[in-house]
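Input (structure):
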C-alpha cells in the first residue's frame, strides 16, 4: 500500500497566513513596526511595501541604516539573544507585515527545512550586502556611494527588472544613508540628471547609463564640472 503523501510545505504560503505564533498587520505610511528600545521578541517578514530602519545615537543624531522591501525579514536579532530593538522600523508606504513570535520562528526553522533554506538565503544575502556597504563607505567617494544606492533601490543587479524607485525618498534620507550632506546629494542628483543617468520628477527613475558609469573605471562620475 502506498504511503500517503506528506503535505508539501511552501515557505511563502506559511508566511502569508495567520497561525500559531503568527499574525499579519497592515501599516499605513509613517507607522512604526517597532521602535528602538522595544523588547525584541519576534521576527518580521515583509509581504508588501517598504520599511525604513533608523537608529538614534546617545547624542540624539538620527541615521537611516537601511531600506527593506517585500521578501525580506527584519528583527531577527531576537534569535541571537538581542533583548531590545537597536533600531526603529517605519513603513515608507502602505505595507503588509507578518509577525512571527520567537518560539514560532525557532520551531519553523527546526522543523521545516524549506523555511530554513529561505531564511538562510536571506541571511547570506544580507551579510554580503553589509560587507559591500562597509567597503563602499571605506573606499568610495560620496558620489559613487549615492550612485550605488540609487542602483540598489531601483533593483539593478537583481533578478527583477530595474524599475523606477516607487517610494518618494527625500534628499535628506539619501544623505543619511551614504554619510554625506544634503547639499552634496543635491549637487550629485542634479549632475546625474544632467548627464542622463536619472530622471527626477517627483520619483526617481534610474537609467542603465548610471550602471555603466559606475562599472567603467574612467567614468563620467569622475568628470570634473
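Output (sequence):
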Amino acid at each position: 500500500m502506498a504511503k500517503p503523501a506528506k503535505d508539501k510545505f511552501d515557505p511563502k504560503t506559511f508566511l502569508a497566513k495567520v497561525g500559531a505564533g503568527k499574525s499579519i498587520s497592515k501599516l499605513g505610511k509613517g507607522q512604526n513596526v517597532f521602535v528602538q528600545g522595544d523588547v525584541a521578541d519576534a521576527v518580521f517578514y515583509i509581504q508588501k511595501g517598504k520599511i525604513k530602519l533608523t537608529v538614534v545615537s546617545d547624542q540624539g543624531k538620527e541615521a537611516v541604516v537601511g531600506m527593506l522591501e517585500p521578501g525580506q525579514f527584519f528583527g531577527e536579532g531576537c534569535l541571537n539573544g538581542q533583548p531590545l530593538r537597536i533600531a526603529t522600523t517605519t513603513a515608507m508606504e502602505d505595507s503588509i507585515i507578518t509577525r512571527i513570535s520567537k518560539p514560532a520562528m525557532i520551531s519553523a526553522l527546526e522543523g521545516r527545512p524549506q523555511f530554513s533554506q529561505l531564511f538562510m538565503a536571506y541571511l547570506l544575502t544580507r551579510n554580503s550586502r553589509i560587507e559591500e556597504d562597509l567597503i563602499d563607505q571605506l573606499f568610495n567617494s560620496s558620489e559613487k556611494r549615492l550612485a550605488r544606492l540609487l542602483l540598489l533601490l531601483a533593483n539593478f543587479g537583481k533578478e527583477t527588472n530595474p524599475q523606477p524607485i516607487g517610494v518618494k525618498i527625500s534628499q535628506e534620507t539619501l544623505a543619511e544613508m551614504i554619510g554625506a550632506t544634503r547639499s552634496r546629494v543635491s549637487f550629485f542628483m542634479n549632475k546625474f540628471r544632467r548627464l542622463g543617468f536619472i530622471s527626477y520628477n517627483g520619483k526617481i527613475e534610474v537609467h542603465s547609463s548610471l550602471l555603466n558609469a559606475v562599472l567603467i573605471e574612467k567614468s563620467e562620475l569622475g568628470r570634473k564640472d
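Notes: Strands lie at 22-27, 32-34, 42-48, 51-56, 62-68, 73-74, 88-91, 95-101, 198-201, 203-206. The two ends are 78 Å apart (CA to CA).
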